[in-house]
Amino acid sequence: MEMILKATGLKKYYGRGDTMVKALDGVDLEIERGKFTAIIGTSGSGKSTLLNLLGGLDVPTEGSVKVGDTELAGLDGEHLTLFRRRQIGFIFQNYNLIPVLTVWENIVFPVSLDGRKPDREFIMEAVRLLGLEKKLDALPGQLSGGQQQRAAIARALASRPSVILADEPTGNLDSRTSGDVIGLMKMTGREFQQTIVMITHNPEIAQMADRVVRIEDGRIVA
Ligand code: ADP
Ligand code: MG
Fold first, then answer.
1. Cα 133 to Cα 187: distance, rounded to the nearest angstrom
2. Most-buried pick from 55, 63, 72, 154 (CB within 10 A)?
């Protein structure tokens, strides 16, 4: 078993004194490469905080995160940004597509930011798997919610990251579209040997995962 993500003694506190919020209060978590893990828990339990720390979008108050062989705390701001862009694909509930760019431009945007040439063949394979080939010239506003989320997934896949981190990716979708989108993510995950960590409120989606991690009050309880 190879562990691709390893969080040790992870704490994230906001504020201080009487108003201090312990968003994460001592999390140890290891995620096996290639697996699809669902993170569940009530609102405010610390799920997004955990995901952001795992992906290096935020820094812990205490503890460490290792992605593959890389200790995130050992990277300065610039190297952390580069590492994130290359190794991690993020998917958010509100898609975060850029409205004035076409679907194709959105998909290749992070790779271009990195000054790299997009791997067209690979990206077109993902585009086809996601059923987006006829929408590449459209603007995000011309797509349905499900199509926008599929575009965001293609964008997350475009840099061929080893890890996909998704924060309630189907939160804005109806249940049937949600099932389709998750099915596609599982398929691309398998196809491209990716590790997926996904926050969800939806028990049916959690059931599709290889493993379910439950978080309560900033701690893992199951
Ligand atoms: P979840 O994603 O499970 O709903 P979050 O990780 O977003 O929970 O938040 C966990 C706790 O940390 C909540 O009490 C939230 O209000 C608090 N929190 C999150 N981000 C911040 C922040 N930037 N500043 C202050 N408190 C925050
Ligand atoms: Mg959240």
1. 17
2. 154
